[in-house]
Design goal:
Layout: E1 2-3, H1 12-21, E2 30-31, H2 35-40, E3 57-64, E4 68-71, E5 77-79, E6 81-86, E7 90-95, E8 98-100, E9 108-110, E10 117-119, E11 132-140, E12 143-146, E13 150-154, E14 168-171, E15 176-178, E16 190-191, E17 198-200, E18 206-208, E19 223-226, E20 231-234, E21 240-243, E22 267-273, E23 278-284, E24 289-292, E25 294-298, E26 302-307, E27 317-320, E28 325-328, E29 337-344, E30 349-366, E31 371-373, E32 379-382, E33 384-388, E34 392-397, E35 400-401, E36 411-414, E37 417-420, E38 429-437, E39 440-450, E40 453-457, E41 463-468, E42 473-475, E43 479-482, E44 486-491, E45 503-505, E46 511-513, E47 522-530, E48 533-544, E49 548-551, E50 556-559, E51 564-567, E52 569-571, E53 579-584, E54 587-588, E55 594-595, E56 599-602, E57 611-618, E58 623-633, E59 640-645, E60 651-657, E61 668-675, E62 684-690, E63 695-699, E64 705-713, E65 728-729, E66 740-745, E67 751-757, E68 770-777, E69 785-789, E70 793-797, E71 804-813, E72 816-820, E73 824-827, E74 838-843, E75 850-855, E76 866-878, E77 890-894, E78 902-905, ...
Parallel strand pairs: 1-2, 4-13, 14-21, 23-30, 31-39, 41-48, 50-58
Antiparallel strand pairs: 3-6, 5-10, 7-8, 7-11, 9-10, 11-12, 11-13, 15-18, 16-19, 17-18, 19-20, 22-25, 24-28, 26-29, 27-28, 29-30, 30-33, 32-37, 34-35, 34-38, 36-37, 38-39, 40-43, 42-46, 44-47, 45-46, 47-48, 49-52, 51-56, 53-54, 53-57, 55-56, 57-58, 59-60, 60-63, 61-62, 61-64, 64-65, 66-67, 67-70, ...
């Protein structure tokens, strides 16, 4: 149960208990613990698992019909009266102050276990016979509760009385009032009409501020609408006749004049309603105030409102009926005062003062509330009300005036207060307070219940409460008892009561933890005690981490057909299961979407997927929500309804309606055209326009039958083309364009080919397109030659070699000639140059470049357009013996018209032998070669070594290996190696090693195996060091040894372990040999076993091994079971290749082991016992 407010009564817990004892079925989610709300919460059960205590309670009215009860005569009458109490209340009714015997009238029924009356008219009867004042009484052993006095009235919609209405005669311009006088009904009727000059008053009368001739009608009828019965009654119609004056001056007639030129005398305003200069109005507090001012006059007056001594309440006031009605809703005392209505026209003005009084039916200041007392306790009932005039307060007990009830020594009357002192069991009763004045009354029931009961805990036992960290937390301990128990809270059964600081205990037993923390977890105990006993209950509190969406949804836009993805990463308390759910536009997602714990994927996005997506992460005690909008972008729909207008010779207006842009703004419209003469069916781009235009002027070409379509473009792409527009054909005209690209150039030495770009089809402008071409030699003054052709080139024959020509061109069709082009210069064909450059020579020879010089040729010998001097050069050989080189020829062009030309040739290989020659070239030919020059470049620095490898050979050494450069560029004199230590990105100081040219490898010892090194290897010539080859070791962190890494074979624990294993094996072998020998000798079979090298015994008893096979495991042989044993008591069999050495055993296993290299005959006499030497076994294991 959530505590929503602080208690207002010192005995609140008792009331709470009494209320709970009568709660049968539903469950409260929130309970306001005040006495007044206990009466109004209705029937509810707090805990279904808690057995209800059988506590008596006086009756309480919980439902009743309104005081002014209007019913529809067509329906049955139901007068409600419901009450609760223990024992179950009994119900009786009073009608017009007298007891109502419901059993005598067959139409009247009272519902079972209820006081509600049902009056049935299905079998006849008149509802009007049951009108009157009703009051319900609910009683049990502890008292009587009384309902309000319910005034039952039957709604009426009476007919208008039949009457004969004489025609109404009025002069034009005068005022008029047509009375409505509707018949009375329940509730009062509404009236319909609203106009500035002609308006309806609040009473239904029709007011004419001034009458016009057009107002003459025979059907003025007043209609009254009865809302309750949904009926409209109509009065007999009025007939209105208007007397008009004849025209005074027909010359001044104006059709807009409502009086048709007749001189109607103007008049100043007079009030039609209300009459006189002053009136008064009384309104009840909380009701609606309506003030009305309707004025006559010509012209029609305007109405304004004021309030003397203050401003009109702007928040509450409203003007209606063209300012003729002032309405204030929910009137309060401050709305009383004098209101002024001012009517004005240009003739004059008039005012009316309305004095408004605000009266009030009684309203509560302090409503009496139920009171629960223990024996010998004190209490009071207070009943305070206000109104205008001040209401009179009357107390009743069990429905009868207190004055006429039995005397009660514990009760004292003090005006609007009843004081109880030292109450006793049996003095329970229901008290009524009636506050009334001439405008209405209030009636309230409040019971006084005297109880004597030990404390009880209403909540479940040992309840587990889970809360979110840092949240405000309430631990409930609902209790009851009489007298009022004292309640205290403890944590983990220790310390004093919890109250103050971090905690707060409410009077209803709830403990508030202002901000729950992890250290607040534990078991809380509430203890309730009074003089009747003590009871306690425990609440276990667990504080959990909040459920949070740490990476929430983000607004995104997705192209149609793509995949959209929303991320929803959740962090929560590990002990709380969390459910992640997805919504789209506040509805559960449909199937077909891929969902997992932290994301939602929407494949093949379409328009139906657009909307707001919500991810909800919910645990049993909290939740977090994240939402974002998905906008689906798509290509726009094609434009529609293409229309052509403003047709002209060279232009037309094209208009269209844009299609849906599908959430991506249209940025451009592309207009295309198709013509059916040159390329029918082929659509060409005409022009494009900004996306905010949909009507454009298209510039057209002549002699084309156009058809247009429009394509819309947005950020996603292009729409489909629109439907084509109607065709529009332009008329022909001479060509506007000049053929472009006009040029002349010889394909042979004695011709010139003139070519140009033909006009486009849309540039033809008419049929039979052809070209007029002119040419002549430049600067000779000869006449123009010309030709007419339909092609795009023409060849002029028999020309001199490489001479300039002037050329021009013009396009023509059947409609005339177009503009002539500017004069262009062309040239006839070229021939091979006749001269060669002379005196080719070099200077400034370097290792990679030389400067070349030559004598130029006569320009006339070039026989065409000079292009360049072209140098051919090639590497003949290297100056190092035995080095093979490529002799591929290379070229380099030099454009120079200087008298003494020179140029620098770079990119040469050092220490090489080059040859070179030069020719002159025009656009198509080369001339004869010059003299050949030989050049030897100087020595340079070498290239980088061919390769550079770094190989690890041991734990503390690396091996470096390289090869000589592919291009030494000189005589190698050696190599230099620089290396640095590397710490992150920093290099330490370098060390330098040099090597002669015949050394290409180097082994290097590493001082620190955990250090990283960087190497720079370069070759050397006399000129200096060449390009360095770079390498690092180790190349990655995986190859590096950490400083803490050690060789396991050198560790003491490992050596000790191996020795222990060897000793165990040795002991096992000795035991085995002893069991097999049993004092005899085993023959040794001669096989191709590995021989043992001599072993010397040192003075300290250890062994010295010299064989290279020390680290190989020895091959052992198994003892022969077939051969005869040798007669030896204490010796093991001989080992080795025919040796007869023995191992003498004296109990201490210290002896000498020898192997003899004797003849084959000696070894054949012994067979191997195939038993492994224990000494070698130890060594092989070690």
């Amino acid at each position: 149960i959530s505590v929503c407010c602080v208690c207002v009564c010192q005995h609140l817990t008792f009331i709470y208990f009494l209320f709970l004892s009568l709660l049968p079925l539903a469950c409260l989610s929130s309970l306001y613990l005040s006495v007044s709300l206990v009466l109004s919460l209705g029937e509810c059960q707090l805990f279904s698992s808690v057995s209800r205590p059988t506590v008596k309670q006086p009756p309480t009215i919980i439902k009743q019909s309104p005081k002014d009860f209007i019913v529809d005569p067509r329906d049955n009458i139901i007068i409600e009266c419901e009450a609760k109490g223990n024992p179950q209340p009994r119900f009786t009714w009073r009608r017009k102050g007298k007891f109502l015997n419901t059993g005598k009238d067959p139409r009247v029924n009272m519902r079972k276990r209820s006081g509600t009356l049902e009056i049935n008219f299905r079998s006849g009867g008149r509802p009007e016979d049951y009108e009157g004042e009703y009051q319900c009484l609910a009683s049990n052993d502890l008292g009587v509760a009384v309902s309000n006095k319910i005034l039952l009235r039957v709604s009426k919609a009476p007919l208008w009385p039949k009457e004969l209405l004489e025609p109404v005669l009025v002069s034009e311009g005068h005022s008029l009032v047509l009375a409505c006088n509707p018949p009375p009904g329940l509730p009062p009727p509404l009236h319909l009409l609203d106009e500035q000059r002609v308006s309806m008053g609040l009473n239904g009368d029709l007011y004419f501020s001034n009458v016009l001739a057009k107002d003459a009608h025979t059907d003025y009828s007043c209609n009254a609408r009865f809302l309750f019965t949904h009926t409209i009654q109509q009065k007999n119609p009025f007939s209105l006749k208007v007397q008009t004056e004849p025209y005074n001056d027909t010359s001044s007639y104006n059709s807009s004049d409502p009086y048709g030129g007749r001189r109607i005398p103007e008049s100043m305003p007079t009030f039609l309603s209300p009459s006189g200069s002053e009136s008064s109005k009384m309104v009840l507090r909380g009701q609606q105030l309506l003030l009305e001012c309707i004025a006559a006059g010509l012209p029609t007056p305007s109405i304004k409102w004021f309030k003397k001594g203050g401003d009109l309440p702007a928040q509450k006031v409203k003007f209606e009926n063209h300012n003729k009605t002032l309405k204030i809703v929910s009137v309060s005392e401050e709305d009383a005062g004098e209101y002024v209505c001012l009517a004005n026209n240009h003739v004059g003005g008039i005012r009316h003062n309305i004095h408004v009084q605000v009266k009030g039916a009684p309203y509560w200041l302090d409503k009496p509330t139920n009171l629960v007392l223990a024996p010998d306790e004190n209490g009071r009932l207070v009943c305070r009300a206000s109104g205008n005039p001040r209401p009179q307060v009357q107390w009743l007990v069990n429905g009868e005036p207190v004055e006429s009830s039995l005397p009660n020594p514990s009760r004292e009357m003090m005006g609007d207060t009843i004081i109880f002192r030292s109450v006793q069991i049996g003095s329970s009763a229901v008290y009524q307070c009636n506050a009334s004045n001439q405008h209405g009354y209030l009636l309230a029931n409040a019971f006084v219940s005297v109880l004597d009961m030990a404390p009880r805990i209403l909540g479940p036992k040992s309840q587990l409460i889970k809360v979110i960290e840092n949240n405000r937390t309430f631990l409930d301990c609902p209790f009851f008892g009489s007298p009022l128990p004292d309640l205290r809270w403890f944590k983990n059964g220790q310390g004093s009561g919890l109250d103050g600081g971090h905690y707060r205990v409410y009077i209803n037993g709830t403990l508030e933890i202002k901000r729950a923390r992890t250290e607040d977890e534990g078991t809380y105990t509430c203890v309730a005690s009074n003089i009747m006993g003590t009871v306690e209950n425990q609440v276990i509190l667990e504080v959990k981490e909040p459920t949070r969406i740490v990476r929430g949804l983000e607004h995104q836009s997705a192209f149609r057909g793509s995949t959209a993805r929303f991320d929803c990463k959740v962090k929560s308390d590990p002990s709380l299961p969390v459910t992640v759910s997805w919504l789209k536009d506040d509805s559960p997602l449909s199937l077909g979407l891929r969902r997992d714990e932290e994301s939602l994927s929407i494949p093949n996005v379409n328009e139906g997927d657009q909307g707001v997506y919500t991810c909800t992460a919910q645990s049993e005690i909290d939740q977090d929500v994240s939402s974002a909008r998905l906008t689906v972008l798509d290509r726009p729909d094609p434009p529609m309804d293409l229309d052509l207008s403003d047709l002209a010779v060279r232009s037309v207006r094209l208009t269209w309606i844009p299609g849906n842009d599908h959430n991506s703004v249209i940025t451009q419209f592309l207009v295309q055209y198709e013509e059916d003469r040159w390329e029918p069916g082929s659509w060409q781009n005409l022009t494009s326009y900004p996306g905010d235009l949909n009507s454009v002027i298209l510039q057209l070409s002549p002699f084309i039958n156009y058809q247009f379509r429009v394509i819309a473009i947005n950020s996603v792409g292009q729409s489909a083309p629109s439907h084509p527009s109607p065709r529009y054909k332009t008329s022909g005209a001479p060509p506007d364009a000049i053929p472009s690209g006009l040029q002349g150039w010889g394909t042979k030495k004695n011709n010139m080919e003139i070519s140009w770009e033909p006009l486009l089809n849309v540039e033809r402008n008419g049929p039979n397109l052809h070209y007029q071409l002119w040419w002549r030699r430049k600067d000779t003054g000869e006449a123009w030659s010309n030709v007419t052709t339909t092609g795009s080139k023409h060849v002029v024959h028999d020309t001199d070699t490489y001479v300039p020509y002037e050329i021009r061109i013009q396009a023509l069709n059947d409609h005339g000639a177009g503009p002539t082009s500017n004069v262009a210069t062309g040239y006839s064909g070229e021939d091979k140059p006749t001269d060669a450059p002379t005196n080719l020579r070099v200077s400034n020879v370097d290792s990679t470049s030389v400067t070349i010089h030559w004598n130029p040729v006569d320009p006339s010998s070039v026989m065409g357009e000079f292009k360049e001097y072209r140098l051919y050069y090639w590497r003949e050989a290297s100056l190092l013996k035995g080095l093979r080189v490529s002799q591929e020829k290379m070229t380099r062009g030099f454009y120079s018209i200087a008298q003494r030309p020179s140029a620098v040739l770079g990119g040469l290989v050092p220490f090489s032998h080059y040859r070179m020659l030069m020719v002159v070239a025009n656009r198509g030919h080369e001339g004869p070669p010059s003299n050949t020059v030989e050049v030897r470049t100087k020595e340079g620095v070498p290239d980088a070594p061919k390769y550079f490898e770094i190989v690890k050979r041991a734990l503390d050494t690396i091996h470096l290996q390289w090869d000589k450069p592919l291009e030494p560029n000189g005589v190698l004199i050696g190599y230099q190696l620089k290396y640095h230590t590397v710490n992150g990105s920093k290099l330490g100081p370098y060390r330098l090693e040099t090597f002669p040219p015949n050394i290409t490898q180097y082994t290097m010892r590493l001082p620190d195996r955990a250090t990283r090194y960087k190497f720079f290897l370069s070759a050397l010539t006399q000129v200096g060091a060449g390009e360095a080859f770079t390498g690092e070791f180790p190349r990655s962190a995986n190859e590096a040894y950490s400083k803490d890494q050690v060789d396991i074979a050198t560790q003491g624990w490992f050596i000790g372990l191996m020795c222990a294993i060897a000793l165990i094996i040795l002991i096992l072998l000795i035991v085995c040999f002893i069991k097999r020998s049993r004092g005899g000798k085993y023959p040794v079979r001669d096989k191709k076993d590995l021989a043992l090298d001599p072993v010397d015994q040192k003075e300290d008893g250890s062994f010295d091994y010299h064989s290279d096979e020390d680290n190989k495991p020895l091959q052992g042989s198994q003892a022969s079971l077939d051969g005869p044993p040798k007669e030896s008591d204490d010796s093991l069999v001989d080992y080795g290749e025919g040796g007869d050495g023995q191992f003498n055993e004296d109990g201490s296993f210290i002896g000498q082991y020898t192997v003899k290299k004797d003849s084959k005959d000696e070894t054949e006499g012994n067979e191997s016992s195939e038993a492994t030497s224990p000494v070698n076994a130890i060594y092989s294991l070690a």
